[in-house]
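Below is the record:
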Amino acid sequence: MSFIWREICSHIIIQGVAPAFLKLVFSDGPINRFNLGKTMTTIVQNELDEVIESEWDYLMSKVDEWSLLHGEQDMEVLEHILRCILHLDQTNERADDFTECVKVQNPDGGWSKQSHTDKTSMWITTFVALKICRGNLILKNSKIEESIQRALEYVLSCQEEDGHWADPEWSHLDTTCSVTVFLTVYQVTHDQKDDERINKARRRGYDFIINWQRESGLWKDDKFHPAGIETTAHLMQYTLVPGYFMDGIEYAQKICLEAADSMVAEQAENGSWDNENMDHTMDACRNLMLVADTFKQKDKYAAVIQKGVRWLMDEKNQQGWGDYKEEPSNIERTGDGLDTLLKYRRFCSDKPMAHFWAYSK
């Protein structure tokens, strides 16, 4: 920001004429979809910290709606909260929330969406397994480790001939990427990057996803979120970037950056994605953070990410997020929102984003 604009901003702030002006910062350079023209929204560090603290307090006030310590739960909701616990460095304080997952593991090694039923879901299994895998890097609990090993064997036994994994509630693309990310996190946290059995399964999953027909740089499934925003964000975070880190696949960078540019082109003027879908906007922001940091493109994508996060902060409910703005808050989406803000805070630091996904230690 130029000296003149700093003086104007200071005058406006002092006079109290337009507090909303604080959200504007003026930047130079040509107008394009990456710098978003002459204005872009800003996020003040103190504001970000306050919202993070407030949303975690809100989730803790609703602990009976997500913690197994308080009864039967939706495991998809719980795994969203476990991710926040990991990012907030509260794993030791909330250790029992990780160990309770072991008690509701099914005999086949998987988990069900509803904690106390025996209908195993591959999607739920992999995301619960990777959360306790990450948690146990700190907790070092033998029972959790046994549970992780059972989950690993179950997952590896279920791969289909063409390399994909299946879940009746999810597309093959999303289900497969949920497995590749679990296998990646397992290998990193267990120092098993040279395990060829796991590498072979993970690479076959990678090949299945890469070979899927894409349009305009996005992965789309006509039966599952056909716009492709959520699916592409998942695949880039959970399969392509791990392929780059784990296997040194150079063209993964080219594919990721092409897909990132396609995703930027789909961002609405107000910063949202997919018709103001909170969930998909969160996915898009997190994905762009990881891709931008991994491939040293933060300057290129920072304004786009910031605009998306600003929209999420402006359109949230007083406490929590709903699936769309002005819808009632729910625990799963609030966990997603908090996770996005925690990742954005990390993105604004000089610390690597890969650690937040456990792709490195």
